[in-house]
Design goal:
Helices cover 50% and strands 19% of the residues. It has helices at 2-35, 54-69, 114-136, and strands at 47-50, 78-85, 89-96, 99-106. Strand 2 (78-85) and strand 3 (89-96) form a beta hairpin. The protein starts with a helix and ends in a 9-residue tail after the last helix. The model has no long low-confidence stretch (mean pLDDT 76).
Length: 145
């Protein structure tokens, strides 16, 4: 009884090893195939969704819809984070370049999010413009000297 159990475990370990080798080979082939086209691909900025509630997910999807339409966002990333606030609902925060841009409380009841999303996208566009201005302006150094 024990030898058959040992052999079946050994076979399952070899199968797992073979599958992991095949996965690594496929990933390597895909990376190699796309490496020749890497100059043609332009990635826009990322929108990281760290929401936990239904309202938070809806807010993030509506914001993502607007974010896709914003031009020249390559290298610019947004983080949408939601934290539970006991007895009050959740606190939703939108961060850009490690700075808090927009923050709002979401109650427990479902409400319309269109106005909040529009406020957030206007503030995000302002933050992007401000960051681009600070990067391109030679008079404004980081240490202001």
């Amino acid at each position: 009884m024990l030898p058959s159990l040992f052999f079946s475990q050994m076979i399952s370990m070899r199968i797992r090893y073979s599958l992991s080798c095949i996965r690594a080979l496929v990933i390597a082939c895909v990376c190699f195939a796309y490496s020749s086209h890497a100059q043609e691909i332009e990635l826009n900025g990322l929108l990281l969704d760290n929401t936990i509630s239904r309202q938070g997910h809806e807010f993030a999807s509506k914001l993502a819809h607007y974010w896709r339409e914003v031009p020249n966002t390559s290298g610019k990333n947004l983080l949408i984070k939601e934290v539970v606030v006991p007895q009050a609902g959740t606190l939703l925060t939108v961060s850009f370049d490690n700075k808090r841009i927009y923050q709002t409380y979401m109650g427990r009841r479902q409400t319309s999010l269109d106005e909040r999303v529009e406020q957030a996208i206007v503030l995000i566009l302002d933050a992007i413009a401000q960051a681009d201005f600070n990067e391109n302006n030679p008079d404004m150094a980081d240490d202001e000297w």
